[in-house]
């Protein structure tokens, strides 16, 4: 079971909106819209994806990570895995 289960519908709604934004970007490129306008939309999509990612990351930390530590699993391994995910997510 995922730790973001209670946010699933909200996440799916946001991802559908992002999907629409990406389709809009495709159309903008197809129509050769002004570069700055395309770049602005790309930045908006990146921001929206980052927000979704942060919600999933927060749920993972509060759910999966917390539960694993409470169950006395190898705390160092759990924290290392979390930090790997955080670094991958935040490095661009």
Automatic annotation (TrEMBL):
Keyword Cytoplasm listed: no
GO biological process terms held by the UniProt record: negative regulation of DNA-templated transcription
Organism superkingdom: Bacteria
CDD domains recorded: CsoR-like_DUF156
Record-linked InterPro entries: Metal_Tscrpt_repr, Metal_Tscrpt_repr_sf
PANTHER family in the cross-refs: COPPER-SENSING TRANSCRIPTIONAL REPRESSOR RICR, TRANSCRIPTIONAL REPRESSOR FRMR-RELATED
Protein known as: DNA-binding FrmR family transcriptional regulator
Organism: Halanaerobacter jeridensis
